[in-house]
Amino acid sequence: MAFKDVLGNERAKKILKIALYRNRIPNSMLFCGPKGIGKKDVAMVVAKAMNCLNENDDACETCMNCRAISGGKFPDVLEMQPENNVIKIDHMRLLKQTAYLRPMIGKKRVFIVEDAEKMTEEASNSLLKVLEEPPFFSHIILLTSCPHMILSTITSRCQVLTFSPISKEAIQECLINRGYEREKAQLISLIVRGNYKQALDVDWEDIRAKRKNVWQLLLCLLKKENVALYFQSFFASRRQLKEELEQTLEILSSFCRDLLVIKEKGDIRYLINMDYLDEFQKIERFITREQALDYNYIIDEALDGLRKNLNPNVLVNALFSNFMEFRNV
Ligand SMILES: [Zn+2]
Fold first, then answer.
1. Which of 37, 44, 64, 248 is deepest in the core (most CB within 10 A)?
2. What would the mean pLDDT of 46-56 be, rounded to a whole number?
3. How far apart are CA 142 and CA 43, in angstroms?
4. Is it the case that residue 73 has pLDDT exceeding 60?
5. CA of 315 to the centre of ligand 1 (A)
6. Domain of residue 154, residue span
7. Å from CA of 149 to ligand 1 middle
8. 36: CA distance to ligand 1 center in Å?
9. Looking at the structure, do residues 154 and 11 belong to the same domain, yes or no?
10. Cα(80) to centroid of ligand 1, in Å?
11. What is the pTM of this model?
């Protein structure tokens, strides 16, 4: 994988490419951003570019070093992950000791620490000195999706680079290029919320089951039936509440968007949930165009609130009461 193979994050890639070209890659870096958007891929490209025998600002992918790094068989590039959900001081001691040794076969030593927020306080503290004064031949790249959980003493010693979720359009295009049908690609790209990695290993059967549930939820909402039970079980059983609620609302939003396309007599080829066409046709005569517009507005408002970290319980309650204000279907 070279820079061109990493989806999105053009700004971050450009900054790194220029730094590589000038041979000015910082020795201590912190890559921040949600999971599944390519932070690790970019870190690997940087590690390869610094050791590549053919290029200096990218990975050529053909030289001995690039291939060994891709295969995880390059002694100067070390990847570290939490063990049992924690990065202990022993890991960091190993990193520290190795960082002061000159590279064995490459030009630079690179340490890539995934989920760096899982470092214990001890582990973090043991890393401070090497982050502050690393030998010129060693580079430490910390990756995190929770930058607020990283000690400020660590953050202040690193060059921080922020990565953004990949756009829905980019993920969709990429899935289509990989042979996905357009509707599937569109739906997956909506649901994964910028997480490209997740898009690639989404379980389609799981999505189908979720959509079935959300369709029932929509029918209940439209009929003003009590949906409290649905959400009670939802709130009780979900570990990643915010993410799952966001996914539910994204699916709900995709149904309401399709409903609006139908109400506006739009081209049904643009439906996201084409396989629900019959279902849409059964309910569409009970809903006015204005109502369909309002549903979209209400759900988008809830999604927006969720992204601003408003309380999910409060948001769901507001969503119900907004739906309840509509005329019976
Ligand atoms: Zn190379």
1. 37
2. 97
3. 9
4. yes
5. 50
6. 3-162
7. 35
8. 25
9. yes
10. 22
11. 0.75
- Residues of the chain above pLDDT 90, percent: 52
125 CA from centroid of ligand 1 (Å): 35
Residues 209 and 150 in one domain: no
Ligand 1 centre and the CA of 46: distance in Å? 11
At which residue do the structure tokens 């990695």 appear? 197
**Residue 38 shares a structural domain with residue 155:** yes
CA of 61 to the centre of ligand 1 (A): 5
Identify whether 293 is part of a domain: yes
Distance 233 CA to ligand 1 centre (A): 52
pLDDT for the residue 205 = 86
Measure 40 CA to ligand 1 centroid, in angstroms. 18
Residue 176 covered by a domain: no
DSSP string, 174-188: HHHHTT--HHHHHHH
The answer to whether residues 138 and 231 belong to one domain is: no
Task: Give the integer Cα–Cα distance in Å for 139 and 117.
Answer: 18
CATH number of the domain bearing residue 95:
3.40.50.300
DSSP 132-152: HS--TTEEEEEEES-GGGS-H
Decide if 91 is inside a domain: yes
Cα of 70 from ligand 1 centre, angstroms:
10
Cα of 111 from ligand 1 centre, angstroms: 18
